[in-house]
Each structure stands twice: as structure tokens, then as C-alpha cells.
Amino acid sequence: MEDSHDLLKQPDALWARARMLQAIRDFFVSKDYLEVETPSLIPAPIPEKHIDVIPCGDLFLHTSPELYMKRLLAAGYPRIFQICKCYRKGERGSCHLPEFTMLEWYCRGTDYHLLMKECEDLIMSIASSLGNEEVIHYQGKKIKLQRPWESISVREAFTRYAPVPMEEVVKENSFDEIMVDYIESHLGWEQPTFIYDYPVSGSALAKAKIDEPAIAERFELYIGGKEIANACSELTDADEYHARFKEVEDYRHSIGKSVYPVPRFLLQNNIAIPESAGIALGVDRLAMIFCDSPIIDDVVAFTPELL
Amino acid sequence: MYSASDLKKGLRIKLDNEPYIVTEFNFVKPGKGQALYRSKLKNMITGAQFERTFRSVDTFEPADLQQRKMQYLYEEEGKYCFMDNESYEQVFLTKSQVGGAKNFLIDNLEVEILFFEDKPLEVSLPNFVELVVVKAEPWAKGDSVSGKTKPVILQTGYQIQVPPFIEEGEKIRVDTRSGEYLTRVKD
């Protein structure tokens, strides 16, 4: 009884989700992207310092479709997108579900700055399909969609909102805490905000800047204080993949976390990832914004606790 | 031993040798960053609240809390005295520690006191207590519209809504969790 009652609380959210998914597909199809489906049961996840994987038999549930989308990219599919469920162990909070819906797209011959523009186009197009042409009303604030959207570097965000500069927190290993306690809540309230150029140490498979190797070509999109998307120019160099995977492995060892098998594909010298950029966008989080919901529970039919 | 991922609302932990209760909790994870556990904690002795963000590697001891059966004796200058019936040890709780329970504390009432080591923290009442009505308007006969209530004052000074037929000097049973009238008690 209680179950069906809870399900009836969010018909608007479920309709909005369905329209969003349709709008996403329409957008990418119109831009000549190929919708792909890659396996979610995989032998080796992408090594990430802070993502725990859910094992499933001898395999693992993917934490994002990144790896196999990159294989398609390398195989010669230049523009691909995917909407799929991803799985991450132990992630449950007001903006986290251990099973969530991700949109990822990759484009050959582009970089993270061009990707910001495409991300704007996509979200504008979703907003218009939901009847929000100019403004999103979120938690009592009006977020203006008029372009250009705000775009500031991570370094600048620290200067503006944090008590310490970015370089210092990287050194002191407190980047995440400062981000969460001082910065995130300010971002994306006047208009959606891109913050870009992250320290390379926390940027997994993002390409480092040529003129500034400690900085990765990576951005995040924030709307209403919430992280909506993460994007980067892709690493193309197999040796660099080696080094990054090793760093993740050493780190996870050092804090007593499980270390998973490494995806061999990215380490092969003969299969090159082309110059490209890719982005992962949390569909549930975006639905929260469009549905004016403070918690992710409001925009999914079932939370883990209701199963 | 708890780890940060065990934190949830209502959990009682020991930090710097003092007991804390988690009053708010959220799991957060900045992009590509580590899992962080944002918590609001309340010191169970002083009532002071503060926010703290933990990492998944942080661990905590559970607060060593014990319930002891005690008897309420008296109140003097905002201090409430309780006695252990076996050891005759007496302890005092402040007005703010007693909180809303003061409305139902009558002499010799058996209650449970929560202790952190040897410090009393809070009182839990029995679910039902019987209290005497010390002030009530007389029942105007004929005024028997069903569902109608009137306010009366109980021996502890607590004001409560009761059915109109309850008279001064009568005893009623009250639910201490809701603070509401349950029934008239005939001696």
C-alpha cells in the first residue's frame, strides 16, 4: 500500500524524465550522432581512485560506459552517444543512487571547450521540450538559461569562494572537502555554470594541458549547486594511461580499497584513441533540476530502499 | 567501531571523549572526488551542535551509553533529582536535559535515565502515566456534543485537552509520547 502511494507522488517527475530522454535522443539524432549500447557486465572497470565497483559473478557492473565507447571511437565511429544505467557501490545520498542513469557522448576532433557549447545546446533543447525556454525555477531561485552561460576556471572558483587557493588544497589533499564545503553550493544559481581546468591529480582519464601539465582539460557543469556533467579532452597516449592506472592502483592499495583488473585495451600501443572529447551527464540530476526536486528520490520510480 | 559509511541520523558516537548524536547526514561526492560524509552532530551533554565532514577512512567508537532505572524525587531550582532504587545514588538533570518530560514527572515515578559513562544525559518516561486534574471548569450538563473537549490543568502544571465530563480531583491516564489524554482512571 505504502509502496503504491509513494509511486503516485511523482507522476510529473516520471513524465518529465520520459520527455527528457526523448529530447536527448532527438537532439543527438539531429546532430548525426549514433546511439550505441555497450555491455554493462565487463571484465575490467576503468580504474578510478574513488569509485568502488559492484562485482557480478566473474565480471563487474560498469560504473560508466566510458571504456567501450572509447573502443568504438577508436574503431572509427566519430560521434556516438549512449543512455544507460551505471552502478557504483556504496553511493547513496540526496544526489546519489547506487544505480543511476547516465548519458555519455563522445565526439572525434573536438575538445572540452567545444563540448561546453554542445552541452549548452543539449540542455537548451531539453529545456525547450519541457516548456522552459528562458528560465528554470529551482528551489525558489530563477536560473536564467540565456547564453553565454557562466564559465570560470577551478582556480578562479577557489579564489572567489574558498578560504584557500587551489594549489594549496591540492598540496594538502583537501581539494574535495573545500569543493564540497565552500564552492559547490554557490555554483549555477544565476545561470548554469561551467567550471574548468581541474588539477590533473583527480581527473582520471583527462588529458593534461600542454602548457600546464598539472592541469587537466576537464570541466564540470553545475546547475542549482548540483554537479550535472563531467567532461574532458580524452587522453590519447597509451604510456600516459599506464602511468595513470598505476597511480590509481597505488592509491587504492594505500587506503586498503579493492584493486580491480585493468582494462588492457587502453594500454595497447597499436589501438589509438583519436583526438576527442567526451562527457558524462547525470540524467537523474538533470531531472531533479527540471522537476524542482531537492532530492534524487523524487525523480525515480524506485529507490533502493523501496525494492 | 563504526566507519563513516555507517553514519546515519540518530547514531550515537564518541568523539573526543564526548557522546554525540548524528542529527543530519548526507553522502556527497564532488566530481571524480572521494566520498564524503557531511554530518551535523549534537553534543549529548552540552547540546552544542556543529557540522563536520568525514572521509570514508574515518572511524568512530560508539558512544558508551547505558539506561538505568531510577525514581524521580523532586525538582529544586531547575534541577531534577533522580535516585537509583538499589544503590540509592542520586543524580541531577538540568531543565533542558529533562525537556518536555517535566510535564509528566510526578514524585516517585519510575523512569529510565540514559548515562554516558557516569554522566546522566536524558530521561525516558513510561509510555503512560496517571496524573491528577487540579483545575477544571465544571461540566455544563447538556454540553455533550461528541468530540468536544475542554482544557484542564494537571498536577504538574501541564495543560491538556480532555472530554468535558472530567472533573477537578479526578485522575486521568496520559500518553507521554503524544502528550494526549487517553482515559479516566477510577481509583
Give keywords:
heterodimer, A: 307 residues, alpha+beta, BirA Bifunctional Protein, domain 2, 3-stranded antiparallel β-sheet, 9 helices, globular, B: 187 residues, mainly beta, SH3 type barrels, OB fold (Dihydrolipoamide Acetyltransferase, E2P), 3 domains, 6-stranded antiparallel β-sheet, 1 helix, 16 strands, 2% helix, elongated
In words, what does this structure look like?
The complex is a heterodimer of chains A (307) and B (187). Chain A is an alpha+beta fold. Chain A contains nine helices and 14 strands. Chain B is an all-beta fold and 187 residues long. Chain B is built from one helix and 16 strands. In chain B, the strands form three sheets. A six-stranded antiparallel beta sheet of chain B has the order 1-6-2-3-4-5, with no helix packed on it. Chains A and B meet through helix 7 of A and strand 3 of B.
Q: How would you briefly describe this protein structure?
A:
The complex is a heterodimer of chains A (307) and B (187). Chain A is an alpha+beta fold and 307 residues long.
* Oligomeric assembly: heterodimer
Measured by residues with Cβ under 8 Å of the partner chain's Cβ, the largest interface is:
A-B, 26 and 15 residues
Strand content of chain B: over 45%
Q: From the coordinates shown, what is the CATH architecture of the largest domain in chain B? A: Roll
- Radius of gyration of chain A over alpha carbons? 19 Å
How many helices of chain A does DSSP assign? 9
CATH class of the largest domain in chain B: Mainly Beta
The H-level CATH homologous superfamily of chain A, spelled out, is: Bira Bifunctional Protein, Domain 2
Q: How large, in whole angstroms, is the Cα Rg of chain B?
A: 22 Å
- What is the element string of chain B, with H for helices and E for strands? EEEEEEEEEHEEEEEEE
Using the coordinates above, name the CATH class of chain A: Alpha Beta
Number of structurally distinct domains of chain B: 3
Sequence stretches where pLDDT stays below 50 over 5 or more residues of chain B? none
Number of strands of chain A: 14
Percent range for helical residues of chain B? under 10%
